[in-house]
Amino acid sequence: MSEMWINMGPQHPMTHGLWNLRVRIDGELVLEVDPEMGYLHRGIEKISEDRHYNEVITLMDRTCYVAGMAWENLFILGAEQALHVEPPERAKWIRTLSEEFQRIGSHVMWYAAFVQDIGLMAPFLYGMRDRDLVLDLFQSYTGARMTYEYNRVGGVRNDLPPGFIDRARKVCDWLLDRFQEYDDLCLGSDIFRKRCDGLGVLKAADCVRAGITGPMLRSAGVKRDVRKDRPYNAYDQVEFDVAVADGADVTARYLVRMEELRQSVRIIRQCLDWLERNPGPAMAENLPRWMGAPYAPVGKEGYLLKRNYPKGVGLSAIEEPHGEALAYVVNEGGEHPYRVKLKSPIFTNLSAAKHYLVGYRVADIPPIMGSVDVCVGEVDR
Amino acid sequence: MATEETAVRSGKTELPLLWVAKPLATAARQFGRSLVRPSTIVYPFERLEDPKFRTEVHVASGKPIGVGAVWDNYRGVHALNLETCISCNLCAFSCPDICIEMVTVPGGDPKHPKKCPQIDYGKCSYCGFCSDACPEGCLTMTTRYELSVTKRSEMVYSPERLYGVYKEKLPMNPIRLERPKNEDSILLDAPLCIGCNACARDCPTNCITMLDIPKAAPKPGEKPAKRIWKEPVVNDSDCVRCGTCISVCPKECLFWGTHP
After folding, report:
1. Which of A136, A140, A289 sits opposite B183 (nearest CB)?
2. Which of A216, A299, B34, B129 has the smallest count of CB within 10 Å of its CB?
3. Which residue blocks in B57-214 are alpha helix, DSSP H?
């Protein structure tokens, strides 16, 4: 039989960004896949070494443009460890709230893109419409819809505005109804189930061996969630369940994400209750000026190193909407981080493409890759 | 090579579903609601800034809820109050994109021209660090978001143009950041100082005064030191911590620090 290589990407509706999937096919059958990443590399880790800690936040928003708040949280957690700063309790809860809203925004965005991959247009529009409410909520307290620049070393920029908690509660109620509609549209459809059941199966052992994290891992039945296993921010004080499924296929990933959306609403309601009861400062007091300011103070070259700021190393892991992200921040006493290393979960999930693509048909590739939830900005950094 | 077994892994389901009855019913319900309450607005003719969107926005299903407006803390085009700007450079220092340039505006005295920020919106990322850094609150961000121009040079907003935005009285970001509680102060490395007055001359808030100091007797066998016998004293309560004095000091004798 004649085998051939085809390129799906870098400009292909399936890729959701700039990356290339080279596929060796025999007729309709996928024999070998070779994902190529790197088209969107911006050198964010290197640029971070030349910026003040708070200025790095502007880069983190652009690392993953659908989950900017999660990456802000990730870097700030690492930076605060490295700088020996403890944020006030209220800032931790606000960050938890923001991250869960971001999870809703990201998962709903994933839902919209995924159903469009498999050819459904109306749910795409519903998803984008509902995500807009989350973005509007973000705008009402951070000032921007996607690039928030909200976290600072030692807390968050400003407290929640008056009336925010009521609005957020309304949005939560409204979103829960919409999640039910999503299920009606997808799980209630025979066509959707026939298209997605049994596709892209990756069993638990293979997931663990390939280092896959996030909803993909939980769809294989592995109960692994950083929010539970290594709680950060206020996750040790909120109640929620880790969503798992056991199909390990596309439908299972859909189920996991839908359950996570409901759990996010549950966490958000607890956060709103707590924030309503406990007013307080959202920024740590008595920060050294160079840490609290958004800019580097002026001075002659190298004078900051002379001042012997405490050195430190920060390593933070969070459960980003796409999986388990990691940041490593080294503080050598200067005003800039000495080294920033970011570990993207999607990079790992995408690199393991051959484990869940080989053996299926070419027409199955868009739903399978859609279920991985690719955000190329964070793959290439 | 793919075996026969891998070739049949896809496509199998036996579910008791009413085919697509449920999705169709949901979509029909949505369609019916969207006829009554559309969730979109007709953008150039309707705008989110309109007061009617300030309280509620109509969404296609469920009750109208209070999101969807452009909130006052939206980070859009800057507004600059030229009259209160003290030319401290802090906005330009804080800009991560280096899109702020301090340009001379009329109004200062000829010896020390007044310099105010000029912003290149081709580079600006709307992070808001400049308005956070502004000690006088004269550089703020408004809710204006429409910036399309026909020439690239029009993307550069001069201070006068930013003042024009200020005079339009658009809604502005109401949140002002508090200054950090224990800010570093300007300290003096006294033996290096030559009393040149550069710091006091360029201080935007005039918080540096040159005080007379006693003339030190030269050590035996040495020439008397060539200097003006004055030393800067910083008034910490007026100081905005812009660091202009540190950058203009020819002998690098001023530095950040905490008072012992």
Report:
1. A289
2. B34
3. 90-94, 129-133, 159-167, 198-202
